[in-house]
Amino acid sequence: MTNKYIFDVDGTLTPSRERIDKEFAVWFSKFCQRNDVYLVTGSDRPKTIEQVGELIYCTCKRVYQCSGNDAWEKDVNIHTNNWTLPDLARTFLISCEYESDFSIRTGNHIEERPGMVNFSVVGRNATPEQRAAYVDFEAWNGERRKIADAFNTMFPDLEAKVGGETGIDISPKGFDKSQVIKDFDRKDNIYFFGDAMFDGGNDKPLADAIQACNYSGMLYPVTTWQDTFKILKEHQW
Predict the structure, then answer these.
(1) Which residue among 52, 57, 83, 196 is least enclosed by CB atoms within 10 Å?
(2) Whole-prediction pTM value?
């Protein structure tokens, strides 16, 4: 039986949308050299390389971009899903942005990625300070879950999941992070680290799929990259 380590990126290996900590990067790159490591993230390839660096990216066995809809091994594209957002769903998201009580808008609110879109009321162009302001607003307002629930009711063939600090990941049903499980052997021990394994989070489908298939290993719900670093050092894999 082989140990396989799967990591979300934002909030799990890095601060959301930011670069990996330098000390952690050195340690984690050595971890990747010793172990079979896979990344699964809602972000696209350029953003993930910016966050973790080319050394870590190319040392991983495979990187699943865009919730598994765009898979890479080093610089080789394994497969890409070319689904696009229907016009009616786009109109719904635009109305959600317009109607939000949060006051800041920075642009790039509907970011199209291979096989999925990421929606953000504050916008992907937000500065760290603007993102932090939205995080504070959303902590008491719960806006993203409300939008995701309303979206899922209106568009039953699609699925919206809360991801990262400010976004909502949207894809056709079944084309979320759970789709990567098909690439793993039932004999594998799978250790999955993610910061959004809660109900409605974009790590939850993969966590559920791992449990449903009765894989050996462990799920590690984390809150920050520091949690991940601490767990990895304690186990000394």
Answers:
(1) 83
(2) 0.90
